């Protein structure tokens, strides 16, 4: 009877160890699958999309400023809007193409097509202004075309910058959703710890049973199993905490976008002031004769003339490097899955080698 109870005890311990191993292994792999999927989507698509949208927005603002300064300085008659305008438009077009590859929003593709169409229209209007500025006596028409082109970019209606801002905001919302998905609920964290502690305790209890029943030293395979369990748990816990890296990436990225917008606003003010003076000087002759539309534009320009920002281009560049560094640090590669599977495999092999031979020997001896 005593031998039968011992056999049943050994079988129960073996079944308990395998059950807990399955639960620990499945929970670890589920955590990896969730974190890996969210991390990959955030790093390779959403973060890149936000960066490229901010780059495209900044490039369009700089292109508009370059075109305005070229025409107001008198160089437009010879060089048109200038090389800087062409370079910035090329940067904006390239960035928008990259956004098309990374967009994650429901209406992102349609909004992007609208923006790309508006860019083509804007460049065409600048070309029309250039043609008028090159004609003798065409400064007034050129100034009007330039004003309409700039209003397409900066206006209050469905304009280029407004559409880009909406697209940027939508992707920032997607990134926020990624951060929420990457965050592990407290009850899931508690279950991971409790399962690991329960399996570790059962390994220790099994070792104690073998020590008392068979008067043997510590079972080395159960020690190996305990070490593999600790390693697997630490790796799983590292994956659970990887959402902090994504959160830091998101915070740094949003800070970079805000700094870039501050610089863009400063550049926009310079260009809009020059544009107002050009229109007043070539079209109206006197500001009081320009009508209500230009009067509202003048009010907006005057209201926007704030002191120059303390943010510099180097600050934005440093933030961009920091974003990339944090994104790389938050990467959850397939190497983590390989290690997790290897540790779980070692754990079950150690459990089998540590429990089955004593069980079989005892049952054979009991007969």
TrEMBL record:
Keywords: Membrane, Transmembrane, Transmembrane helix
Sequence intervals crossing the membrane: 192-211, 218-240, 339-360
Keyword Transmembrane helix: yes
Protein name per Swiss-Prot or TrEMBL: Uncharacterized protein
Protein's organism: Actinophytocola xinjiangensis
Lineage per the UniProt record: Bacteria, Bacillati, Actinomycetota, Actinomycetes, Pseudonocardiales
